[in-house]
Amino acid sequence: MFKNFSRRHRLDYSESDLKYEYIPQSLRYDVYKHLSKQCDDADSSVAEYCLYRGCSVQVNWDYFSLGDVDSIMEWYSPDLFIELLQKCSWHDFLSIIEFLIDQKLLSIDETEELFTYHCIGYEVSADEDGNQIVVVKYDQLIEDTDRILEGNIEFQGVLSNLEAAKKALSDRQNIDLCNSIKNSVNALEAYLIGMLNDSHIKTLGNAISKIRKTLSCPPHVLTALDQFYRYRNATENVGHGAPRLADLACEDALLCHEMAISLINYFHRKGNR
To answer: How many helices (H) and strands (E) does the chain have?
Structure first.
């Protein structure tokens, strides 16, 4: 990826939450710099014009039509391409990214590097036909939620909490890691309370104690439950309110989401034998 002094020393980097439905100008310029670098030869104007025209057609953008090489050399200006990348909507820009990947003008690694550096909440993934497409970041990792939601779990509280945990991870405008973790834990808590069907069981801690005493549960599963419960209680604004927000990463929320689903699946399948 083309890098200037600022980029090499991360002087233009700003820490932020993942951005959705928004593409910063710095990323738009980065893509242009990368493409113009590839067109840096004797026929650069012609090559760049072909890219400009292809990207414009891809997103139904009116382009400046030039009929032959002579007219391109005389009339084409890079400003036309820069204007397209600057002014197109966020979703048109992502469509252009897909086009550039398909044309082998931008690699998946280069795209991921750009998205990561600019804190963009999208990533490249293969669809069912093997095409490389841009998707909301982490969508592929939370597909199990849909399978659980389509299952035969009878406790509505479990389904509602899992849905809320998933939304807090994948809603393009409302990523909320604390709430995602909280809802993942609540989903497991709701399932275990419903499974045990004991009026004295009110909390996840109560449920774990009851399971330890009354059920034939493997030690590694009990350890996982214990660690899950302790993590929830020790993390600010997940188990209990706190004046400061916990320092969380999306990977933390994803792990809790996957753990909750795995543990719910384990007890649900075991109970249905």
So the answer is: 13, 2
Q: Is 36 exposed, middle or buried (0-12, 13-18, 19+ CB in 10 A)?
A: middle
Q: How large is the angle between the packed helices 250-271 and 219-234, nearest 10 degrees?
A: 140
Same structural domain, 145 and 244 = yes
Q: Are residues 169 and 231 in the same domain?
A: yes
Return the structure tokens found at 57: 């057609």
Report pLDDT digits (tens) over 133-171.
998 876 655 665 656 655 577 787 888 888 888 888 777
Inter-residue long-range contacts of 126-133, CB under 8 Å, 24+ positions, other chains counted: 131/102, 132/98, 132/101, 132/102, 132/108, 133/98
Cα 250 to the center of its chain, rounded Å: 9
Q: pTM for the full model?
A: 0.60
For the CA atoms of 167, 169, 175, 181, the dihedral, rounded to the nearest 10 degrees, stands at: 100
- H/E stretch holding 213 reads helix 204-214
